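Troubleshooting log. The previous structure file for this entry was overwritten by mistake, so regenerating from the original sequence record. Sequence copied from the archived sheet and checked twice against the printout by T.R.
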Amino acid sequence: MDTRIAESELILNSRGAVYHLDVRPEELAHTIITVGDPDRVALISKRFDKIESKFQHREFVTHTGYIGNKRLSVVSTGIGTDNIDIVLNELDALVNIDFETRTAKQDLTSLQIIRLGTSGALQESIPVDSFVVSSHGLGLDNLMAYYAFENTATEKQLLEAFRGQVLLQPGGANPSIFACAEGLHNHFRDGFHTGITVTCPGFYGPQGRTLRGQLANPDLIDHLTGFSYEGHRITNFEMETSGIYGMGRVLGHQCLSISTIVANRIAKQFSKDGNAAVEALITKALGIISVL
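Regenerated output below.
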């Protein structure tokens, strides 16, 4: 017997749309671009040949439309893996839960979810305005401690090596790691750097920035930069990727995160025109995504 999902667990609004995104199942494409900044949704959808629908609720903006025959949705997540928890669960609900019966569908849909974001490089050799594809998302944020999942053997080895090489404060993060969808990654190799992306639970202290507050772990960036295991290294850090990859693992979706490098934390450089660098990534990525 199918288990009915209670109204308190799956919240639908007055028009039958999922609560936070304000989107109904027929209003979502199965290839989805996520961005952190709500204003970046329009930067992408203005390149569509046709915009089918636009919705906004709080920081969550969704535009669905077409490039040629390819149907796409662009969704803003806001900042942080707490928001990723909301967005990934609601995207999954839109395709894998019957809203009439409030039960999971027997035939499940695996979405293609591609993040286009910004990030800081942790290797001096990765210049500002370049693009990094996250081979893995390594979370220092604790979201995935609330979910059951299985790691691959390679992920377990990487995590063990990370714990041995990178000193974390006692009582702090319980790191997790997840690989990207290799099938998607294969389309984004020419012109892209690749490496492990660390996802942090904040922008200042968790990323080694100190303004007035003193850091509990002032050597963290050096340890992240120095990490190496069988050819894998940490290339960059930001605030969403591990949540996307982890929730993709739990819910069965294909996920890839691609970042424009707007800062190099080792060379102490910042992009002279971050907006132009983001536009360049959008152009390059849409050319690939539109023919997936």
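The mean pLDDT is 96. Archived copy saved in two places this time.
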